[in-house]
Specification:
The chain is of the alpha/beta class. It has one domain: Alpha-Beta Barrel (TIM Barrel), CATH 3.20.20. It contains ten helices and eight strands. The longest helix is centred in the last third of the chain and has 15 residues. It starts with a strand and ends in an 18-residue tail after the last helix.
Length: 262
Amino acid sequence: MQISFFVEFPKTDLEGLKYLSWPTKLYITARNLEEFNNLKKKFKNKYVKEFIYWPALSKKEGYWISPFSKKEGLRRIFQELENKKVPVMIDAELPTTQNPLLYITQLFNFFGNRRLIRSFIKDYKDINVAEYYPQGKLMNSVLKVLGLHFDPKIYGCRSIKMVYHSMHKFKKEFITKELEEGVKRFGKNYLVAYGVMYHGNSWENKITSQQLKTDLEIAQKTKIEEIIIFRLAGLNKTFSSLIKKYSIEKIQPKNIYTNCSY
């Protein structure tokens, strides 16, 4: 499997870089492309074969990408990426913990924002979408209406399902079945995110090494091609030794500064 990492808080995530010992990809959050490029230089490492731009709004704008985000922020991010060839990940989540007032102030913009987001994801050539954890077909339909679920067969994106066992008590049988169905339907465009290995908020619990081992075994069994772990700051000797056993080997790193002329 390809085992990658989220980098949401670069200052602390930088500490985990020294424990890498296999080819990996980093999904780095940044407010704009200039900041993303600067962070790539800081995270340069012989084991990092690719960087993915994870654009984030300000907390006032909603931080994550959803139809309740401020329209001005969405347009700013999408317009900056026009005609660019940088790989992107959109984090499709509601602004509940960031700015719940947006549910009221942006309600009038909901449908316009949803069209804007859908159009960007469908048109962009190299895009991943991080989505809420699997909850069955009914909930996927609800998330689709909310503009938070994107079918890879329709949008041409890669879907990343956030299966954080440190925060949600999923049954092993349920998750195994969901991942099997996801891979069967979407193949290599169905990815999974595990964690949290290092919390981003005080209310988040950290995943145990035993639980992560179980998660990795499920991903391997269901033939998931890539998993992304939240987040790099949690990488230490114990986790590094565990993860390396499941990672792919002998991948020739790409030129990490390819397509940087934007």
